[in-house]
Amino acid sequence: MAAVEEGAFARAFSAGMAATDCALRALLRPGDHLVIPNDAYGGTFRLIDKVFTQWNVGYTPVALYDLDAVRAAITPQTRLIWVETPTNPLLSIADIGALAEIGAQSHAKVLVDNTFASPALQQPLTLGADIVLHSTTKYIGGHSDVVGGALITDDEELDDAFAFLQNGAGAVPGPFDAYLTMRGLKTLVLRMQRHSENALAVAEFLAGQSAVDTVLYPGLPGHPGHDVAARQMSGFGGMVSIRLRGGRAAAQSLCARTEVFILAESLGGVESLIEHPSAMTHASVAGSQLQVPDDLVRLSVGIEDVADLLGDLEQALA
Fold first, then answer.
1. Residue 131 DSSP SS3
2. What is the rounded CA–CA span in Å between residue 244 and residue 251?
3. How are strands ordered across the β-sheet holding 109-113?
């Protein structure tokens, strides 16, 4: 993991959330503050909002693509800028290099959750980030058969802190999990190329469907983060989200009608998945500042024949 992220140190964890918890505990103390994306992964938000706030850790959700808003959110107590790019599930793009500069100026560490892009498409440490986090369950594992996480850094002091907490909490992967993750890394670049190709075709197809109001995919030239993504990524990834004109009912209907796209949480495997975030992966943010629209559908586009994927979506939308 250190090699593929071009980092000096890496720690493997039993789950992505174990890595998340370790990073937060290593970097934050009571009274500290962090900046998070205003469309962060639901599990990350839940951990910060329900657990770390009990220890007097404050947070501010911000649209990370708005650099002025990020600067305004930073306080003298800010120790961490938590970055997702692309975000889950709205596929927003943050400028890693610019955020790294803001972090350096404010003496805050910058952590990038690189799960959606994978190191095959984006290497945040080379852009100035201090820490990279992965749920290796997703694209790195790549076959929906392993659960894991990772933290990568160039900072030996940080790595020592991660190692101490990981050992103390027992948040280590089993040997077979490590084997499956290593197996996934061997085909990561090839898979990400196919995921990206298929996702672009799916996004372009969906953009032409009358039932679809908005397509969220950074590979489309009309995406507000397209230029930044093109600069810091070598491909646009396999995740596509859409908003449907028919609202919640239309979103649920689409999820129920697909046949090749499997209705399931998680993402990043060779098979295509579809889900309704407001009722599934992001139910934990309902009623919060991070609540996702109920007309949103998230697609994890797999490596199947693209004609099968487009045909499935066409019949499901009919």
1. strand
2. 6
3. 9-13, 149-153, 131-135, 109-113, 78-84, 33-37, 58-62
Q: 9-185 adopts what CATH topology?
A: Aspartate Aminotransferase; domain 2 (3.40.640)
Counting other chains too, the contacts that 271-280 makes at CB distance below 8 Å and 24 or more residues apart are 271/144, 271/302, 271/304, 272/299, 272/300, 272/301, 272/302, 272/304, 272/309, 273/299, 273/300, 273/302, 274/298, 274/299, 274/300, 276/251, 276/252, 277/42, 277/89, 277/241, 278/248, 279/252
15-68 per-position pLDDT tens digit: 999 999 999 999 999 999 999 999 999 899 999 999 999 999 999 999 999 999
- How many residues would you count in the chain? 318
Look at residues 288, 270, 81 and name the one whose alpha carbon lies nearest to residue 187.
270
Q: Which two tokens stand for residue 287?
A: 């009623």
Alpha helices in the chain (DSSP H): 16-27, 42-50, 67-73, 96-106, 156-169, 175-186, 188-207, 226-232, 247-257, 306-317
Listed by start position, the domains of the chain span 9-185, 189-317
Q: How far is Cα 77 from Cα 117, in angstroms, rounded to an integer?
A: 30
For the domain made up of 189-317, give the CATH fold: Aspartate Aminotransferase, domain 1 (3.90.1150)
